């Protein structure tokens, strides 16, 4: 559960090559904006961004492009946004994992607080623990007992080093006192597919995009990471209910802009997000994503943002995740 030293070195030395060139419409002065997802295409965060991007563009009178910029546990896409023009046309689809790379790295390629302005909170969600149905374990307690009998013999997948799915599982392992080997993938979907194929034994995935997995007989959903059971899976107990008292892992989702973005632009985008999230069509999409909408004014979102930095730093420490 350690970062590979070359990962952050690559981000730092090659960051210039990772920044995109604006499309022709933008160069010509067109109203083209981006919501950058700092993980590979096909993941839950990209799907969430697409639930409201069209309506947000209509509300603001511009076109929003959802662009996935995966790599280095989210650091590549995040750094690109930090270095973008502070004009409100480049936004980061962020979550609690925003603070993880900085907490792990001695010299992160961006400052998770100073380089960004919290713009709008979208909502929050919990995650679920899925294991291979080939395992004899039927619940969290049995999975923990099985892993204790076979330390280091099982693997767990994630959407990459420093992702929420990585941190949620590493935190669970530390609380349970079990040794399961981390295998990072490019996306949550890829990690889940490997569990279904039986090559990886466990993965924690967001409620967002959970639908297909609930129908796959090769997968077994055994626990919810949140404080309460999921409305999508009311029969599945929380991990805390299942014996790991005190274990809770939830994530907020929100839009961040580069530091220096004018307050008036932040307020305008925040108001537009609040309007869009209040519509029936977007509300319905969020429900299917397993996200509980929670709009906030920028100042309120900033308080949540700073509080989560403290929480994620503590979780990283408790899970004993360190950079090499």
Outline of the structure:
By secondary structure, the protein is an alpha/beta fold. It has helices at residues 5-18, 24-27, 44-60, 75-82, 100-104, 140-149, 164-176, 188-196, 211-214, 263-277, 280-289, 298-318; strands spanning 2-3, 32-37, 63-68, 90-95, 116-132, 155-158, 181-184, 202-206, 219-224, 250-258, 292-293, 322-323.
Structure description:
The model is unreliable at 1-29 (pLDDT under 50). The relative contact order is 0.19. With 324 residues, the protein is of the alpha/beta class. The strands form two sheets. Strands 2, 3, 4, 5, 6, 7, 8, 9, 10 and 11 form a ten-stranded mixed sheet that branches. It has helices at 5-18, 24-27, 44-60, 75-82, 100-104, 140-149, 164-176, 188-196, 211-214, 263-277, 280-289, 298-318, and strands at 2-3, 32-37, 63-68, 90-95, 116-132, 155-158, 181-184, 202-206, 219-224, 250-258, 292-293, 322-323. The chain is built from twelve helices and twelve strands. Helix content is 40%, strand content 21%. It folds into two domains: 2-124 and 252-323, D-Maltodextrin-Binding Protein, domain 2, CATH 3.40.190; 125-224, Periplasmic binding protein-like II (D-Maltodextrin-Binding Protein, domain 2).
Encode the helix/strand succession as letters: EHHEHEHEHEHEHEHEHEEHHEHE
- From the N-terminal CA to the C-terminal CA, the straight-line distance is 10 Å
Secondary structural class: alpha/beta
Overall morphology: globular
Give the helix tally: 12
CATH topology of the largest domain: D-Maltodextrin-Binding Protein, domain 2
**Biggest sheet character:** 10 strands, mixed
Strand content: 15-25%
Mean pLDDT: 87
């Amino acid at each position: 559960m350690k970062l590979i030293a070359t990962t952050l070195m690559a981000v730092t030395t090659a960051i210039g090559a990772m920044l995109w060139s604006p499309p022709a419409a933008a160069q010509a002065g067109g109203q083209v904006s981006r919501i950058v997802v700092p993980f590979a295409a096909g993941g839950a965060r990209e799907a969430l961004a697409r639930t409201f991007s069209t309506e947000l563009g209509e509300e603001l009178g511009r076109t929003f492009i959802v662009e996935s910029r995966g790599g280095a546990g989210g650091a590549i896409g995040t750094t690109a946004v930090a270095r973008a023009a502070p004009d409100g046309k480049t936004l980061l689809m962020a979550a609690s994992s925003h603070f993880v790379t900085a907490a792990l790295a001695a010299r992160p390629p961006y400052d998770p607080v100073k380089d960004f302005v919290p713009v709008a909170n979208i909502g929050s969600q919990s995650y679920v623990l899925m294991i291979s149905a080939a395992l004899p374990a039927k619940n969290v307690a049995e999975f923990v007992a099985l892993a204790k009998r076979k330390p280091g013999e099982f693997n767990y997948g994630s959407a990459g080093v420093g992702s929420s799915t990585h941190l949620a599982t590493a935190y669970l392992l530390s609380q349970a006192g079990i040794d399961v080997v981390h295998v990072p993938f490019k996306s949550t979907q890829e990690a889940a597919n490997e569990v279904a194929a039986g090559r990886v034994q466990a993965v924690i995935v967001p409620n967002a995009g959970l639908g297909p997995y609930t129908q796959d007989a090769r997968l077994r959903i055994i626990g919810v990471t949140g404080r309460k059971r999921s409305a999508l899976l009311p029969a599945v107990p929380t991990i805390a209910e299942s014996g790991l008292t005190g274990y809770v892992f939830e994530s907020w989702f929100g839009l961040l802009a580069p530091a220096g973005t004018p307050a008036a632009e932040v307020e305008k985008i925040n108001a537009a997000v609040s309007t869009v999230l209040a519509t029936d069509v977007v509300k319905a999409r969020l429900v299917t994503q397993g996200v509980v909408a929670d709009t906030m004014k920028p100042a309120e979102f900033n308080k949540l943002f700073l509080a989560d930095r403290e929480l994620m730093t503590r979780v990283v420490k408790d899970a004993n995740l360190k950079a090499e």
